[in-house]
Design a protein that fits this description.
single chain, about 325 residues, mainly alpha, Cyclin A, domain 1, 2 domains, 17 helices, about 55% helix, Rab-GAP-TBC_dom, Rab-GAP_TBC_sf, Rab-GAP TBC domain-containing protein
């Protein structure tokens, strides 16, 4: 696989290589991830964070340090350092940082500084708008996924919506555990090879693709409970099939429906670590609840037009997406 080092090692070239080879060779993965993310190696800044001892909030559950030996010790230090740097995560009761970070330990635990910087880079870039409504889940972002599903697979969307199932019911569970619950553990890093070489908005086609791949089974089910059991089952999906569907859905989604309110990838910089939330958090306490209820009611009304009356899908999608973008930006 020497070809990996014969081309200019840019994000774009690595993206093209992945399209050809589908996987980064295991022996090159760590090095290529550091290149893809352009990590700054801020050792002094990390050591300061590592020395900051914090009492962990009740929603952050770490493994016992004798459970997986040295890997767990390193993983726990990275989690504690992330909490020291991003204290707002302490308030996020619907997001257990340990569940998000632990799956990466198999690749990264031998390189603690790289482990920390990769996780912070992912949180800063691929997890944009996850923290807009702390302590609650990012319902605004997740409802935009509903609109994308409606555009790409209206029959599946209507079937799920008629049973009261939306993206927040399945996508958020997969996202907040870094997708390790929907792919075979041996293919987890392959999935993240593709996520990291693409712009952050590509990540959001992964949960939609996972749902779509199970469409044949879901359409045949007639109750909320049966569908949720399938969506939350432990049966892993094939990573290559999942990625193929995600790329196809991404390509088929018009630009105006893409999550283009997200900024493109920004690497961490040398000398300091940026804060996770550079502006004040958007919380339900910061905005009148009646306004939030009105916004959600408007979106529900739009989606109902599709579900009940067969209204023009594109017209409803355009109006709904505009509403979602306005809510994120306000």
């Amino acid at each position: 696989m020497a070809c990996f080092f014969n081309k200019a090692l840019s994000r774009e070239s690595l993206r093209n290589i992945l399209h050809d080879f589908e996987i980064i060779p295991e022996q090159h993965r760590l090095k290529l991830w550091t290149i893809i993310l352009n990590l700054p190696n801020n050792k002094a800044q990390y050591m300061c964070l590592r020395e900051t001892k914090k009492k962990l909030p009740s929603n952050i559950v770490l493994q016992e340090e004798d459970e997986l030996g040295s890997n767990t010790k390193v993983c726990n230090r990275v989690i504690q350092s992330l909490l020291a740097h991003c204290p707002s995560l302490e308030e996020f009761r619907h997001f257990n940082l340990a569940d998000y970070v632990k799956p990466f330990a198999g690749l990264l635990a031998s390189h603690e500084l790289i482990y920390f910087e990769i996780m912070l880079s992912i949180l800063m870039n691929w997890c944009q708008h996850w923290f807009d409504h702390i302590p609650l889940p990012p319902y605004t972002l997740l409802s935009m996924l509903d609109i994308i599903m409606l555009k790409n697979h209206p029959d599946l969307y209507r079937h799920l919506a008629n049973l009261g199932i939306r993206a927040i019911d399945y996508a958020w569970r997969w996202m907040r555990t870094s997708f390790h619950t929907i792919v075979d553990p041996r293919e987890f890093f392959t999935l993240w090879d593709h996520i990291l070489v693409n712009e952050p908005n590509f990540l959001y086609f992964i949960p939609l693709a996972a749902c779509k791949l199970q469409c044949r089974y879901l359409i045949e089910l007639s109750t909320h409970g049966e569908i949720m059991e399938v969506l939350h089952s432990a049966t892993p999906l094939d990573a290559q099939s999942l990625l193929k569907e995600a790329y196809q859905m991404n390509a088929a989604t018009p630009k105006e429906l893409q999550l283009n309110q997200m900024h493109p990838f920004h690497p961490l910089v040398s000398g300091y670590y940026p804060t996770l939330n550079p502006t004040e958090l958007i919380t339900f306490q910061d905005h009148p609840f009646q306004t939030e209820k009105s916004d959600l009611s408007n979106l529900s009304r739009l989606l109902a037009k599709v579900e009940e009356t067969g209204a023009e899908v594109d017209e409803v999608i355009k109006e709904g997406m505009a509403l979602r973008r306005w809510m994120i930006g306000k």
